[in-house]
Amino acid sequence: MVKEMRSDLNPFSLLKHNNVIIKFAVSVLLVGLAFRLLISDSFRFYSVVETSLPANEETKPESLMASMPAEEPASNDFEANKSRTSQSGKCDLFTGEWVPDPSDPFYTNQSCLQIEGHQNCMKNGRPDSGYLYWRWSPSGCSLPRFKPKKFLQLMRNKSWAFIGDSISRNHVQSLLCILSQVEQAVETYHDEEYRSKIWLFPTHNFTLTVIWSPFLIKADVFEDMNGVSSSEIQLHLDELDKKWTDQYRSFDCAIIAGGKWFLKTAIYHENNVVTGCHYCPGKNLTELGFDYAYHKALQLVFNFITNSGHNTLAFIRTTTPDHFENGEWFSGGTCNRKVPFKEDGVNMTDVDTIMRNIELEEFAKAAALGLENGVVLKLLDTTRLSLLRPDGHPGPYRQFQPFAEDKKAKVQNDCLHWCLPGPIDSWNDLVMEMIVNGGIYQ
Ligand SMILES: *[C@@H]1O[C@H](CO)[C@@H](O)[C@H](O)[C@H]1NC(C)=O
Ligand SMILES: *[C@@H]1O[C@H](CO)[C@@H](O)[C@H](O)[C@H]1NC(C)=O
Ligand SMILES: *[C@@H]1O[C@H](CO)[C@@H](O)[C@H](O)[C@H]1NC(C)=O
Ligand SMILES: *[C@@H]1O[C@H](CO)[C@@H](O)[C@H](O)[C@H]1NC(C)=O
Ligand SMILES: *[C@@H]1O[C@H](CO)[C@@H](O)[C@H](O)[C@H]1NC(C)=O
Ligand SMILES: *[C@@H]1O[C@H](CO)[C@@H](O)[C@H](O)[C@H]1NC(C)=O
């Protein structure tokens, strides 16, 4: 209960702190010219990306489970074509369009017990459901739906990890929910803040871990439960976060993502010396830019993976776009769209473009090296396909029944995380496709 309340108070609550607003206003003035592009986003994500703690309802009536489908959904006949095209190398899974699909999502707020409150859009009262009825259709081939039964069979005795920030948690919850059609996961571990967790699928002996490591590298963060920081983040650009590296060799597969936390104000350390910062006016330090740190961080990550001496299958997921419109997260930005964009209906923001380019660049270098070392690296390039889904975010329905008492209530919107069920489920369709048709597990 306490946790639930804390997390309700928690995200986006900067606006309630007057001192912070003032600080923020001053910062914006200071920043205005030089770093405009980077900073507006840096503040946008100041508390959005992870101030929210999972507030899972762990107790649900037993009877709900009975209503869950036990059968594998009917297989679809796109598959035959897909295998052919992917073998002939013509298929780019990440380029395509969203097409209408009448089939129901794999799970609902009733059949999946692991949906985090802030992303449980149905339960929170989101009135429209059209956003659930779209399927990602890569050009030149089709993407089969995830096959939970097959997946769990393939993963018997195996262990997977999702490593990153709250979007990685969003992603792991989607996988838990999809798999819950076949077997309910049992939570076997959580850290004090419910940010890192381990689940076991007992009858398949499949272990799923989510590790909270928003920078992937060593970071000293001084944020309280409300996401208000008392001091700048100290980022060590030459040291990985042991939280994930210590466990890495025990995973058969790891889905790793960096991203938005690098946009925050941070002091950069290398060789135990402060070498600069990202957005630290008044500190007399060299502005090195978040791109500098992101390059270094990903290089370290890839270096570790390709030299880990363990054949963990590593997926690197590219950055996730947000869809705040008519304002930023802190200034009344919303995301009210009900349908996906067409391919040319939207452009990636400059920040997302910079981040994804860094990811692609470092991945390309590492993949070549990995090949030499016999380590399989896969790029899970979800940025563009996710950019086409402005309709997939909780918006105001990040909290329970936001308009129950006042239809015109001013509500903080979340246009960054994804509703469950929702478009993020397709990220797992892609993972499944890559491991099955990619010939990694058969
Ligand atoms: C499979 O490919 C063939 C030939 O390319 C095409 O005619 C057919 O419509 C495709 N089937 C599906 C289900 O996409
Ligand atoms: C699930 O969502 C529906 C609305 O789609 C709502 O009526 C129902 O109460 C929710 N159930 C749970 C268990 O949250
Ligand atoms: C899983 O582990 C058990 C116990 O070690 C073993 O008996 C079984 O053959 C394993 N199954 C697979 C598919 O590896
Ligand atoms: C479960 O899998 C692990 C390997 O991940 C294996 O060591 C263990 O023996 C398995 N347990 C059972 C009961 O099969
Ligand atoms: C800023 O740093 C430089 C080099 O470290 C130093 O020479 C200079 O005096 C500093 N300026 C202020 C205002 O502290
Ligand atoms: C995307 O950018 C291109 C080139 O700058 C521009 O022509 C186009 O109108 C933009 N599209 C949207 C939807 O903003």
Automatic annotation (TrEMBL):
It holds the Pfam family PC-Esterase. The keyword Membrane applies. The keyword Transmembrane applies. Residues 58-88 are annotated as: Disordered. InterPro entries: TBL, TBL_C, TBL_N. Residues 143-434 form the Trichome birefringence-like C-terminal domain. It is a single-pass membrane protein. Residues 90-142 form the Trichome birefringence-like N-terminal domain. GO terms for cellular component: Golgi apparatus; membrane. Its main location: membrane. It is found in: Membrane. The chain crosses the membrane at residues 20-39. Keywords: Membrane, Signal-anchor, Transmembrane, Transmembrane helix. It comes from the Eukaryota. One of its GO terms (molecular function) is O-acetyltransferase activity. Belongs to the PC-esterase family. TBL subfamily. This is Trichome birefringence-like N-terminal domain-containing protein.
